[in-house]
Every structure is written in structure tokens, then in C-alpha cells.
Amino acid sequence: MPARIRSANSSSGTGVLRNLNRSLVLKTLWQRPGLSRSELARELGLAKSTVSVVVAELLEEGLLREGEEMPGGVGRPSRALELDREKNLVLAWEISVDYLAVRLQNLMGEVRRGQDLELGPDPDPSACLDRLAQASRELLRGLGHSVYLRGLCLSVPGLVEPQHGHLTLAPNLGWQDLPLLEMLGHKLAQHRIRVETPPILENEANTAALGVYTLGEWRVANLAYLSLGIGLGSGLVLDRQLFWGSHGHAGEIGHVPLDPQGPPCRCGKRGCAETFVSLKAWRADPTEAGLERMADKLGLLLAQLLNLLDPDVVVLGGPLVEEIGPRLLPLARAAARRYALEQAARTAQIVLSPFGRDTAILGAGVLAIRAFLEAQRSGVGA
Amino acid sequence: MPARIRSANSSSGTGVLRNLNRSLVLKTLWQRPGLSRSELARELGLAKSTVSVVVAELLEEGLLREGEEMPGGVGRPSRALELDREKNLVLAWEISVDYLAVRLQNLMGEVRRGQDLELGPDPDPSACLDRLAQASRELLRGLGHSVYLRGLCLSVPGLVEPQHGHLTLAPNLGWQDLPLLEMLGHKLAQHRIRVETPPILENEANTAALGVYTLGEWRVANLAYLSLGIGLGSGLVLDRQLFWGSHGHAGEIGHVPLDPQGPPCRCGKRGCAETFVSLKAWRADPTEAGLERMADKLGLLLAQLLNLLDPDVVVLGGPLVEEIGPRLLPLARAAARRYALEQAARTAQIVLSPFGRDTAILGAGVLAIRAFLEAQRSGVGA
DNA sequence: GGGCTAAAGTTCGAGACATGAACATATTAC
DNA sequence: GTAATATGTTCATGTCTCGAACTTTAGCCC
Hints:
The structure is a homodimer of 382-residue chains. Chain A has 382 residues and is α/β, with parallel strands linked by helices. The first copy, chain A, folds into three domains: 16-83, Winged helix-like DNA-binding domain superfamily/Winged helix DNA-binding domain (Arc Repressor Mutant, subunit A, Orthogonal Bundle); 88-205 and 360-376, Nucleotidyltransferase, domain 5; 217-353, Nucleotidyltransferase, domain 5 (2-Layer Sandwich). Helices cover 40% and strands 23% of the residues of chain A. The first copy, chain A, has helices spanning 16-31, 37-44, 48-60, 125-140, 180-190, 204-215, 273-276, 279-284, 288-309, 319-339, 342-347, 359-376; strands at residues 64-70, 78-83, 88-95, 99-106, 111-118, 148-156, 159-161, 166-170, 175-178, 200-203, 223-228, 232-238, 241-243, 313-317, 349-352. In chain A, the strands form four sheets. The first copy, chain A, has a five-stranded mixed sheet, with helices on both faces. A five-stranded mixed sheet of chain A has the order 13-12-11-14-15, sandwiched between helices. Chain A has a three-stranded antiparallel sheet with strand order 7-8-9, covered by helices on one side. In chain A, β8 and β9 form a beta hairpin. Chain A is globular and about 70 Å long. Chain A starts with 15 loop residues before the first helix and ends in a 6-residue tail after the last helix. Chains A and B meet through α1, α2, β12, α9 and α11 of A and α1, α2, β12, α9 and α11 of B. The structure holds a DNA duplex (30 and 30 nucleotides).
């Protein structure tokens, strides 16, 4: 009989219930900071005593912070609880086509410090990671010893293999088939940056989707993010979860055929969405007529998304949106109404990302936070 | 302070752990019948004693059955456990365009008895339900008193509103805006059919997708089912869950625009997928050329699905497939390869439904079973 | 056939944990 | 100042899982 490590996947055992409740409390306070112990108990259907114990544990570990007393009427005032904004930080990294970025975020996703770095053409992967680590080191300087770096996520414009953190293909960087997550791990070690939860590598459209979903104003179940840049990609949040598909390629709409007789695409086919809707297409024809044609094709794409996935919100972002978003949006909305099912077009909102150029990196932070909170489920604490 | 009913949504309280473990055992035995207590314990990471207690409870309630001893080598032989195939049945109903169908299935999805009924044009909803209930009554006759009817699901070719069980629109039946689930409840009461779990109303493509996913040979996470009939619809199983979208309209691909200059569609737009890929299109041009054109357009649609969702399997079913499936399949595969991303086209299988005309109704049974097992989580037992 | 080994399933005491009632605490209302 | 009210804590109780010891039932070997 093989030696059997404590089965990690499944259900019960010592501490499962406690972990479940820890996780519930953390998740609830993440979404709705400022609740009191009593409110948590009511909300979660737990006994007040149980919540008190769990909260005490989490306070002890530095995960929660007790706020001021909140005089709310008759009776003893309650004490607001929230994730400790000071003690717990995550690093978000972004490699974009023409810049690198680092952000230090707290558990609420708020940016505490950040830095952007120029990036020349034909960047070297190892050098990029070095610069990111270097910049992070500086941002972390002088933060005090009671501050924990809870997680890290790197957002890249390319196809990521989710299991091992390989970067399969990043055409706009000229990279392919890199063990990027492994390299990242080595750089962190070299630069003496200790992260509690294993680092994460993720596609830029996916982090952006998760970021907008989490930090945006919409409390919805299904959201699609369209990343309009040199190429065209998308990230999907379905039933409140980031959707990867079976091989991590979900959302690759850049090469959906919109017109089999259309112009040739770098992928070898003709009339891919990317040939109509992208920075490249805009550069080729930056006129009002070009804009209208682009919006029309974008409408076709939106119709596919709306009819197939019935989302609450579709968010447009990326460099092209930075450039012409406000002009593009009304045309795209009209085109979507023209092509999509009436119900879908009526119920779904189409909006621009409220976070501009920072959308993807904010989402990377969110992903790191989620991974950390997830890991807390079965953790023995800090 | 308002009177507070035992919070149903959330976590813990008396018996939560036990319910979790009950649910785990049931789910595991559903997917892999014949496991022993020991194997379950190993599989789930539970103590043998715990599994024994839970299993004893479930045996008591008639949910599980203990099989013969399985001599497997040295040591005391184990006893196979499985969901009790005899004592627990569900009803699956289907209203199709030209027939009604009833199936009595056990918890493994196997059909024990069934009946098909002819259906004339312009069917009356109430009469349909009456005939279904009547037929069910006969199928149930003489089943013994220790047999429980655990659930019921009705599959319909139309748009369903998930919350209240309204049938919003079923163009091919000429029905719209019917409180079909409520009517169904009344009919059951009239015909003295007692079902333990609340009946379910679901779109035909969705039940079919779930059925193929569950009863098919593929053990996958993501599957799309295309229903090719008078119209064109699809059902999506994403991350092992049936996907509805935000308003229950996910998968409505019949009116995705494939060619803005195409023929007019009954929906008022031009060049909808349905105008190219459907029984109607085939009837209009049942030639080799027509077949090739249809396959080409189907390829466009498949490319959208494959690129956007990265599924493991796409299953084709419905009346059109019954008629020309084997001729259509190779052409559709070729077209998909022509239009989809290479990776997606290579990794995803495109197949015909192995269950033919019964795909949707088998899936309805599966949905009823899942609902019942789900309800067992917090149930106090039969 | 008898003893040994191996595996399945059961029994039982110990420990973890959620619960609810009683209690302490802090505020408003009068 | 006293009553009312709500928050948060303490503690005895009961549920449930766990692991170790034990029973049962088989194969293996002499």
C-alpha cells in the first residue's frame, strides 16, 4: 500500500468545519467590509459565539482588523471588522507590449504603491523579470516587519498553460514556449522576495476580466471583457468564476472568422475578427468610415458573445479603447443591437473599462488576493 | 427583530458536516457505482468508521443498496455499494415538435419503462400535460409500495425562465408566456402523482447537453451540445455545470449572424445561423451542394464555439442529425478545421449524439436525478 | 486441517467544534 | 438614575469525526 499523504482534495477531517467558517468569514468581509460579529453571525447563519471564536483567530493572525466602535442606535455599539489593509499586501506585475508595471495592493485591491517602466522592442524575458523584481524590491523597502506579502500574479499578453505556468505563445512580445512561472520563481529567490502563496501567471484579458468583475460597480454573475489591442482577446467570468476552458484557451476570439472573404490574417486564415477590430486595423484606416466599419464588425462579435453567453455586462478595454473608446462605444452599442437577439441586447450592458490602462494589472492583484484567501481555507494560519 | 427561519443558504450548524459527507458519498457512488466502504474512505479522505456510519444511514433510507461480496484477493471481501436501482426512480417528460415522450429512469439514468405519444399540429399545452401525466400513471402502475418517485423534469423546445418555470417562448409549438411549471404541478396533483423533489422545467438543448455529458463516454469538464432541428439551439456544460447565463438564455445561437447579407430570417434580421443550418434549410435544398453549404456554415459556428469556449467535446444532435448526421459529420469536421484556431480544432472532438432521438429526454432524467441528489444535502432523509 | 497474513468493516473512547443560554458590557430613551 | 436594547463573551452540552483496537472473512503455506 502506497504511503498516503493527507488527502488534500476533499471533505472532512480535523478542522474542516472551522476552515469552512474561516473561509466564509473572510470571503464575506472581503465583499462587504465593515460588518460586525453580530451581523456576520446573522448573515452566515452561525451562532454569535462561533463567529467570535473564528474572528479572534483571524485577528490573532493579522488577517482581520478591528475598526472603531460604530454607534448605531440603542445597545452596545458594534465593532466594524475588515481585512487588515495595512498588514497584508500582494504584488501585481504586468508585462505589456510597451511597458512593464508593478503595483503593491492591499487585500481590498487598493493600490498602495506602484511603478511603471519603459520597455523597448524585442524584450528579453529574463531581463523583464529582473526589472520587475528590482522595482518590487524598492517598493517593498521600509514597509516594516509586520507586513506580509501574501501573493503575486503576473499578467501577460499571451496564451498561458495553466498547469505548469508555461507561456505558450505571446506573438506581440515575440516570445513562445517559456517556463515563465519557473523563471519568475528563481528571480524572486535571487532578489530575496518572499511570497506566501505560490505566484500565478495569467493571461492579460483574464486578469482584466476578473479585475473589472471584482472591483467594478457591477454585482453580477456573468461578465465578458474584450481586450482591444494589437490583437484581440477576451476574458470570461461565468457564474462568478474565471473561465479557462479545457486547455486554458477560452476567450480566444481574435481569430473567430467574421468574413471568410475578408483580408488575410497573420494566422493564415482570412477575415479573422482581429483583422477588423484591433489597433492594427485602426492604424490602417483611422477615418470615420474605418471607425464605423470596425464598430460594425465589433457588433457581430458582441452579438456572438451576447447570444451565446447571455452575460450581464460586456466591458471593452485595452490600448485601442484608451485611444478611441468614447467614439467607438455608441457605434458598437448600436451595432450590437443591430445583430444580437433583442432580449440579449436589451438586458446586457456594454461599457468601457473604468480602470483604463490599469485594468489588467489591477485584476492581477485581485487574482493574487483570491489565491491567498483560497489558500487560507486549509492553512494553519500565518 | 424579525423572526428568523433556519438560515438555509449558508454554512454550518447542526449536521452540516454530516450532510456534506452524505452528499459526497452519494455523488461519488453516482459517478462510480460499486465502490466499497473502504474504497470510499480512501477516496474521500475520511475515516473508515465515518463512512460506515454514513453508509448505514443511507442504506436505512433506501438510497443505497449493498451488493454481493466481491472476492478481490487476500482479506475479508468487500461489499459493493451502489445507488439503489430498484427503489428510486425519476420521471422524464419531453414535449417535442411532433411527439410526446415519457421515461421512467432509475438513479443511474437507465430507462426502466417508457412510452411515446403522437402529437398533432398546434398542440394544446394543458392537453399535452394531461396525456403525459396519464401515460406516467400507467407506467407507474404496479411498482410496489417501496418504490419512491424522487423527481421529475420536463424538457421543452423553447426558452425557459429559470426562476418561476415560465415558458417564455416556444415558436415551434406556437406557445408563449405560459406558467408551464405551475400547470404541470396541478396536473400531477390531479392525477395523483406524488414526486418528492419539486419538478423542473428545462430547455431541450440544455437537458440534452447535460444528458450527453453525464451518460456519455467522455469524462470531461466542458461540453457543448448543438441541437439541429427546425430551429437551432445549444446547451452548454461549462466547468462541469450546466450554464444558463444571467437570464437563462445562454446557448441561443440560432440567431447569431453568420452573413449580414444572407437570407432573411423569421426574427427580422438577415443571415442568422438558423437560416443556414436547420431542417428548414435542408428541406429547402436537400442536395449535395446544399449539404456542403450547410456544413460550411456549421463550421463557422463551430469555430466560434471552439475558439470562445475551448471545450473538450461538441456533440451534434436533433432531428436534422437523425436524418443526415453521418453525411454531415465529416464535412462539419473539415469546416471546423478550416475556420477554427488550430489548437482548438485539434484538441476538441466533434461527434454525433450516441442517444439519437432520446438525447433530450435522457438528459431530463439526469437533471431530475441531480436535483434530487442535491436536495439530499440538507434533507433529513426519506 | 491449522496457523499466519491481509484486508474489510465495526466498536468505542477522545477530541474538536458549533450551539444556545446565561452573562457582561455599553449605549440610548425617559 | 433606571429601563430597554443590542453587542460580544463564557460555558456546559451534544454532535460528529477520528484513530486505534477489535472482529470477521478470506487466501496462502506447510
